[in-house]
Amino acid sequence: MTDGDAELLPATRRALDHRLAVTQAEGRAPSVVAAVVREGRTVWTGGRGELPPGADPATVQYRIGSITKSLTAVQVLRLREEGLLDLGDPVGAHLSTPHGGGATVAQLLAHTGGLAAEARGPWWERTDGELRPELADVFGDRPQKHPQGRRFHYSNPGYALLGALIEKLRGAPWAEVLREEVLAPLGMTRTGARPEAPYAAGWAVHPYADVRQPEPAVDLGRLAAAGQLWSTAGDLARFAAFLLAGDPRVLGAAGVAELRAPAAAPEPADWDTGYGLGLQVARREGRLLAGHGGSLPGYVASVWAAPEERLGAVALANATSGVATSALTAGLLDLVARHEPAPPEPWRPARDADPDLVALTGVWHWGTAPVVLRLHAGGVLSLGPAAGGGRRSRFDPAGDGAWTGREGYYAGETLRVVRRQDGTADHLDVGSFVLTREPYEPGSAVPGGTDPGGWR
């Protein structure tokens, strides 16, 4: 357990311990470890089952499979922020590849590049990567399964291309770049491409008998960027904290929010899940989550972050299947949220608020519909219906009397204050819609004009 455990009530810790024990027993896992993050700190860790003697559950390594993809995505966005690539660039503009070069960087990150789900056989997760020494060896006979950009289709070869892209632009091996630029700054010192003791051996547990056999732990070679990493509950808890707020040493809050934003439409059969840029997104119990699951022979793992509640949870197990780590992490989040809901941030008055902006606040009218403009810290505006449902958005200052919409219908759209010759506000222009102080205010710039007879 960590020192931060004191921040949780005893009843909450008992509930978390019980949920972990049930998952290990019902999942028939040799071992399971888990952790919960709140407000950027690890507040609970636990372990159940066969752990290395004397080892802290938070420090025992497990393979994390496709959670590796999320860390690869972080590194790709670092390259974008340095100006070395654009997410709209075709991968082939930077990297020589026999397949997938027409897909954009963003499409590979979001699994919309149309590439095959799996690498060339035999079963690549159980075959040593040395048998695929070249990038071309990753692709099978029909590598392109769908048109680029048309649909979500999970692709491990797509992330092999992203790993090769990182190596090309950095001039160093993918694992080395990731360690120096992402893992070390985040304090993930027990995460790497090779296991280091103490670590949990991977097992296949018989589905109908209480027996097991060891699984191979092969090096994935060219597919390493898709699933090679080993990590711990403690390190993944640090990553969960990063997914909540970012870290300026690695990727700021805006960049992490971009990772979390859905970039690919969900499959019609599963509208509660989607995919961002290297992160899965889901709705569980009404809660918006971002993170990733991972599996390789002998291991399963999950990490989920709930940004609105400033919570994160991770779980790792050493069994090929049967252990519901994703349900466990979502359940741990739900337990903490229900037992100890996070208080809202305290209200504080804005500092040095611009009087001209204060004067803009209040009720405006889009035609006959009243909407309310509010002013927040940093000159941020929000606009929404005075009552009931409708279009809502926050707007960030863009300079020159304009703001840019953050979300919803107005995401990316411009809000502008149009002033009279004397400098007073005449109306608001929101993506060409005119908002006036009074409904169809006489003399205002309502397109098409207003009836001279007025209201009757």
TrEMBL record:
Q: Which organism is it from?
A: Streptomyces johnsoniae
Q: Which Pfam families match?
A: Beta-lactamase, DUF7586
Provide the protein name: Serine hydrolase domain-containing protein
Protein's UniProt keywords contain Hydrolase: yes
Taxonomically, the superkingdom here is Bacteria
Q: Is Membrane set as a keyword in this record?
A: no
Gene Ontology molecular functions: hydrolase activity
Query: What InterPro entries does this protein map onto?
Result: AmpC-like (IPR050491), Beta-lactam-related (IPR001466), Beta-lactam/transpept-like (IPR012338), DUF7586 (IPR056008)
Q: Which residues form the Beta-lactamase-related domain?
A: 21-329
* Keywords noted in UniProt: Hydrolase
Query: Where in the numbering of this chain does the DUF7586 domain appear?
Result: 354-437
Give EC number(s), comma-separated. 3.1.1.103
Q: Which SUPFAM superfamilies match?
A: beta-lactamase/transpeptidase-like
Top-level EC class as recorded in UniProt: hydrolase
